[in-house]
Design brief:
This protein is of the alpha/beta class and 196 residues long. The protein has one domain: Rossmann fold (3-Layer(aba) Sandwich), CATH 3.40.50.10610. It is 33% helix and 33% strand. It has helices spanning 2-21, 85-101, 168-195; strands spanning 27-29, 47-54, 63-69, 72-81, 106-107, 118-131, 135-145, 153-162. It has a 5-stranded mixed sheet, with helices on one face. Strands 1-4-3 form a 3-stranded mixed sheet, with helices on one face. A hairpin with a 2-residue loop joins strand 3 (63-69) and strand 4 (72-81). Helix 2 crosses helix 3 (168-195). The protein is elongated.
Length: 196
């Protein structure tokens, strides 16, 4: 009888450890430049620095934040950004601009060199909403300061990109495409300035 009582706690411990080992693990994601972008009408390669990018405090966290109602959001503890979102957005936009402008001189890092030839891009993401299975909406105010000038060209982009399916991969892909659309508008402003 005593032997049976001793075996029960051991079996329960093994079952509990097994249950703990099968708990969900977090998945990590990054935004990337939009792979569908093609270069615009060729211009001379330009030097562009994308910095800074600001984002709402609501989404400035590792977890995915999705909208589940007009005034309600949900945090997903198991779907996380692989790096701070504002830095990831800046890198995605820089990659998009490099493709669109046909330039390998687009970066998020300002070296201070060639300051007289550098276009400076600032982006203030006012809204980064994701509705699972539906769309990602990005509203951004942006400014482009041409080389040697102090007055920026300013613009506002409002993009709603449908998700191609359900799940986090579809959400991130829609985010890539939405940022690509914002980047197209920024690139058009830069090209118009280069043409003057």
């Amino acid at each position: 009888m005593t032997r049976t009582l001793w075996v029960v706690p051991v079996v329960l411990s093994v079952v509990l450890l097994d249950a703990c080992g099968s708990s969900p693990t977090a998945s990590f994601y990054t935004l990337n430049p939009d792979a569908a972008l093609v270069p615009m009408v060729p211009t001379k390669p330009v030097h562009v620095v994308v910095s800074p990018v600001t984002i709402p405090g609501l989404v400035d966290r590792p977890q995915f934040v999705t909208r589940v109602g007009n005034n309600q959001v949900a945090l997903d503890e198991f779907a996380r950004w692989g790096e701070p979102l504002k830095g990831n957005i800046a890198r995605a936009i820089a990659g998009d601009l490099a493709t669109l402008l046909g330039s390998d001189r687009v970066s998020v890092f300002d070296t201070g060199q060639d300051a007289a030839d550098t276009w400076r891009v600032r982006v203030d993401v006012m809204r980064f909403d994701a509705v699972p299975g539906e769309a990602v909406t990005i509203e951004a105010l942006w400014s482009v300061v041409p080389p040697g000038k102090s007055i920026p060209v300013v613009g506002k982009s409002l993009v709603r990109q449908q998700m191609d399916g359900h799940g986090n991969d579809a959400l991130v892909s829609a985010g890539d495409r939405a940022l690509g659309a914002v980047s197209r508008e920024i690139a058009a402003a830069i090209q118009a300035g280069v043409a003057q």
